[in-house]
Amino acid sequence: MALNLLKALPPRPAESLDTVLDATERCLARYGIRRTSMTDIAKEMKVARTTLYRQIDSVEEAITLIASRQLHRFLAGLVALVAAPGGAGPETFIAAIAGAVRFGRSNPVMQRVLDHEPDIVGELVTRDLGFYATQIADALTPIVDVAMKAGVLRPADPHLTAEWLVRVVAVLLAIPPESDLDEMLKYALLPVLQPSLPSDGLSPSRQ
Length: 207
Fold this sequence. Notes:
- By secondary structure, the chain is an all-alpha fold.
- It has 10 helices and no strands.
- The chain has a domain at 66-193: Tetracycline Repressor, domain 2 (Orthogonal Bundle), CATH 1.10.357.
């Protein structure tokens, strides 16, 4: 059975959907993506299926709303970090990326999928991941752009930088490092994000 997710991540879900989405997450962690049904979610919420259908149309829609909710929470947290006194800079973005990877790897739904439904991971990677990565990068770009204009990140194309950071997270979620995550990210990302680099004979990045 193919997992037919929406073609685009929706806007941040209304808080009134939190109860539905929380119940869906519990069902997904318990039964897996392919076995979770609308009946399971309704039972988890202790409501009739007709009540559930007034809020969401399908399990697939709920999964996409969950992804959107988590994305907007991540972006809000990153905005707060960047806005805090002394908060902006490469270390802020590296800490946020490390946090996103740790959250994903410890999330019960993600663990269930990786352990019991690895075919879904392959399906999403080959069909949907690039599309979603671009959307997430679009949402992250304004934050990166502000940091670059403030001089706390190396001047570059903000969208390409955002998309590269998103893909780093995707790779590390699928293939977690055996070494220290923070040290690996610093090694890989500091040379790209530092606002100034020692002269290395290379042409400066285009604005």
